[in-house]
Amino acid sequence: MHKKSLFDDSEEEGQGEYDEGGEADEFDIDGDDNFERPEAQDMDFLSSDEEADSLPTKPTKPTKKPRFAASSSDDDDDDEEAEEEPTTARNIEARSRALEAKAIAERAADMAEAAAAGAGEETMFALPSAEQQEAEASGSAPVDVNELQLRMRECVKVLGDFKKFAAPNRSRSEYVQQLLADIASYYGYNAFLAEKLFDLFPVAEAIEFFESNELPRPVTIRTNTLRTRRRELAQALINRGVNLEPIGKWSKVGLQVFESSVPIGATPEYLAGHYMLQAASSFLPVIALDPQPGERVLDMASAPGGKTTYISALMQNTGVVFANDANKERTKGLTANVHRLGCRNVVVCNYDGREFPKVMGGFDRVLLDAPCSGTGVISKDASVKQNKSARDFTLLSHLQKQLILCAIDSVTPSSSATVVYSTCSVTVDENESVIAYALRKRPHVRLVDTGLEFGREGFKAFRGKTFGEEMGKTRRFYPHVNNMDGFFVAKLRVGKPGKRAEQAREESEDEQGGDVGLPLEKMAFDDEADAELIRESKRKYLLKHKGIKLRPKAKVDAALCKTNGKDAESDEE
Amino acid sequence: MDVSDLLRAGASKQKSIQVEKGIPLDIDIAYLTATDPNPMDEEEYKNEREEYLHSMARENAQLLINHLFSLPVTSSPDGPIAQLPPPTTSLPRAKPLPKPKPPTRWEKFAAAKGIQKKRRENKVWDEEKQVFRDRWGRGGKNKELEEQWLVEVPQNAPMDYDPVKEARDAKTKRIAKNEGQRLKNIQRAARAKSSTSQLNPGQEREKLKVQLDRDLAQTRVSTASMGKFDKKFEGEAKLRGVKRQFDPNEKSVEAEKATSLAIMSKLDTGRPSKRSKGDNDDVLNVRKAIRHESRKGGQPRRDSQGRVKRK
Amino acid sequence: MRPLTEEESKAVFSKLANYVGKNLVHLIDRSDTPHCFRLHRDRVYYVSESLMRLAVSVARPNLVSLGTCLGKFSKSGKFRLHITALDVLGQYAKHKVWIKPNGEMPFLYGNHVVKAHLGRITEDTPEHQGVVVYSMNDTPLGFGVTARSTLDTRKLDPTAIVVFHQADVGEYLRDEDTLF
């Protein structure tokens, strides 16, 4: 609920900004001759004080497909103008002048209304009608970006305090549907993914999340402690004209680069292996893994080697790190990085991760940075927005479940046996569901604290699924909260199978609920029933031995049914 | 009792031994063969084939037997014996004629030069003894030099000059040479036979080379160590198709270290390269030390004549 | 993965000895953890024994690299040092060359070291001697072979080549595809 109050706080500012936006638009329209629509404004109105410092770079403006400015004439005021006939490309030339004047007038009206809204807190917003929505969806009546923005803002406001702002005879789901459709078209997501991500957050925060996905994350580097120290590296880079500072209190090796006069991936220091270009989020699983010198560690999906080399550095080049990657091409880059950073204790191999306990087991720690949908790194790879479908998520989570079991099986159970599961995805079915599955399938495994003092707790329950209190020990990182890629980290401790299993079963019996955990029956030997079975099989064996033909099975069964344990002997006679 | 009637009656039943033929038969009595050149009587052959053939066979057989009985006969304890004359019919060969042998090197040369083959008489005239003697063999002429009781020694002959041995050696050498030539001729003939027309001389040579290489490779790995310790020549071709044997991956590291060190020390004892001359790896770099010392002392360096060298 | 044969060992050692001289003994006979040389897909790796024993479990087609790669054997059986061997060479190098900051980038692009860029050089370096190239702040940048001895170098003009380039850390970017 914290977020919600945050949203409320910033509402006034939001209105103010909106006004400014309106002015800007008006100005754009005035100077617009070639019918291109004005650039979309950023939905910055939600930014809180918390955010201000974590987003150092100026937000970039998402570029939109140019559409005809004339369509702004069907701006959705709450007046009857929604009914106005659509403008076509043919008649647009003739009408442009007239429209311009009209638009100015409308803008003025808008402004006045907005000001009134700011002051009076009245509901000025109504959802578009069903026909309108259909038209938008089919593309016959494209919507102005500004209008989209406005509508989204209003939807968020309404959903934030539904009782107060909602129009009568409108359901909440209608607003949600409208908002989702708008998000999908405004940010360019497919409908499925938009809904999936939207469901993760409260309404206001969801918008923040989508907004932050449009911004690049800061460039970060990791000092290679095998070769140099952070202070020395920073000094050397500053001498080269790189503007940087430590990434935060949580890491002793990270540096954040603000600007650089030289390519940061080709300095002599980089080539000499003094640092690694690495996203801040990829420090986290290694910190959680906490490898110790002399251990045997497996990195199941290691390319391009940022985490592997970090592990190796933490182990001070002792013990063994197995760096595995399923993609042969990517192992080249991995090997290059391993050698460049001077990690001598690394064995690079190219297996499917699922083969792993068969190839070799007995690891002290396993890091599984699972292949994922990449919904946490949309800012890096925007193609995710469009190309992920429900099927992808099913396949991926299936693979992740297989991998995590393999990872757990590769570890020798002990007090320090650790498996860290991480993804650069924020969806629940790639993260909490996978962990819950692993806990269910391997009762000797339990979640432990990740050792990361920031980040949100994982979902203990999500949309009817209950994952249990334990799941609070996992950590989620979001671009809009931590200014790093969306990330998930869970740390599992693998205990001895026997003892832990019973304990876990008792626990799970206590907290049975939701669909997590199969109903576990008490399994034990039933001596009486067994004795009967043993006797029967002995009899069969004897008869067979003597060459006597057995009675048909049905008969025997019938006989067995009739007789109880003790009568069996008489039956035999 | 006169049996002449009976005889006549019997004779009348039997056919006459006198047979008339238009053209007399060709009889090669040595093979007991008679060939009838008379044309067949077509009419009779068509009408009664069996009878006609029967009678003809009988008649011809009769003629053959008549001829046989006309041979001169000698009596013997086993009865009369006739000596068959030599055959007059020549039979064809069972096998084809042998192909002509490929000419020897000499024959080729002789044919090219038009040298006629001359029969060499086995006996040669001995001027001294005024008799014909064998050219070779026991008491042959070619052993003359060896068997002389007195031999002229050349002027510059060494002390241990043995004219008999000398002569015998020369003779064995000639024999060996001839044998070599003979074998070469055979080989050449065999080769010509195996590759009649398919291969030109270049290919021939290549094939030989391959064969030779194969033989060589075979011999190289035919030692107890599979050729491992054999001396290698500069630029010797690597053996192909020979299974390489490597050390096991997980042998004792100590042993491995020892072998490595051994290899390393071997490297050093090898030719001291020019570039490594300057840096002998002693703790003290002598040249540097001398220079250092001389500079520190501040004394001007002197050359061999003791003159002060100016820098 | 297999141990080197005698021939291969000779080739590797003689190449290494060109840079580290007698210090090669310290590579073979280490005081800390025992190390060994292993050949895998024509590449020679310098690995600690424990690492090697674990890596044996990885099947040959799946093993990509282990320990430190020293270099590779060409098809004709010659051994060529890779830039990945720089760590080993830098640690035991007998002769070193330091280059000035303005010479760093040209060297990292694969050029020879000219006299103008030469900062310092180990005294008494003979010609055609393998040397490790450092930047002025002692970061190893690559290795090469001297064109002239230290004494001859003094007389050269500034554009003359003093060290022939053999490998530099820029290859991590330039030759990533062929190097590994």
Automatic annotation (TrEMBL), chain A:
Domain SAM-dependent MTase RsmB/NOP-type: 209-495
Gene Ontology MF terms: RNA binding; rRNA (cytosine-C5-)-methyltransferase activity
PROSITE patterns assigned to the protein according to its UniProt record, in alphabetical order: NOL1_NOP2_SUN, SAM_MT_RSMB_NOP
Domain of life: Eukaryota
Protein name: Nucleolar protein 2
Lineage: Eukaryota, Fungi, Dikarya, Basidiomycota, Agaricomycotina
Coiled coil: none
Residues where S-adenosyl-L-methionine binds: A301, S302, A303, P304, G305, G306, K307, D325, D352, D369
Automatic annotation (TrEMBL), chain B:
InterPro entries per UniProt: Ribosom_reg
Family label: Belongs to the RRS1 family.
Keywords for the protein's UniProt record, in alphabetical order: Nucleus, Ribosome biogenesis
Primary residence: nucleus
Basic and acidic residues: bias regions: 203-217, 228-257, 268-280, 291-311
UniProt keyword Flavoprotein present: no
Job of this protein: Involved in ribosomal large subunit assembly.
Cellular location(s): Nucleus
Natural source organism: Dacryopinax primogenitus (strain DJM 731)
This protein's name: Ribosome biogenesis regulatory protein
GO cellular component terms listed in the entry, alphabetical order: nucleolus; preribosome, large subunit precursor
Positions with biased composition (Pro residues): 83-103
Positions of the UniProt region annotated as Disordered: 76-105, 179-311
Keyword field contains Repeat: no
UniProtKB/TrEMBL annotation, chain C:
Single GO MF annotation: RNA binding
Subcellular compartments: Nucleus, Nucleolus
Signal sequence extent: none
Xref: Pfam families: pre-PUA_NIP7, UPF0113
Keyword Nucleus listed: yes
Protein origin, superkingdom: Eukaryota
Keyword RNA-binding: yes
Gene3D superfamilies, A to Z: 3.10.450.220, PUA domain (2.30.130.10)
InterPro entries per record: NIP7_N, Nip7_N_euk, PUA, PUA-like_sf, PUA_sf, Ribosomal_synth_fac_NIP7, UPF0113_PUA
One of the protein's GO biological processes: assembly of large subunit precursor of preribosome
Alphabetized UniProt keyword annotations: Nucleus, Ribosome biogenesis, RNA-binding
Domain PUA: 95-170
PROSITE patterns listed in its UniProt record: PUA
Coiled-coil boundaries: none
Gene Ontology CC, one term: nucleolus
Assembly, per entry: Interacts with pre-ribosome complex.
Family that this chain belongs to: Belongs to the NIP7 family.
Function: Required for proper 27S pre-rRNA processing and 60S ribosome subunit assembly.
Protein's recorded name: 60S ribosome subunit biogenesis protein NIP7
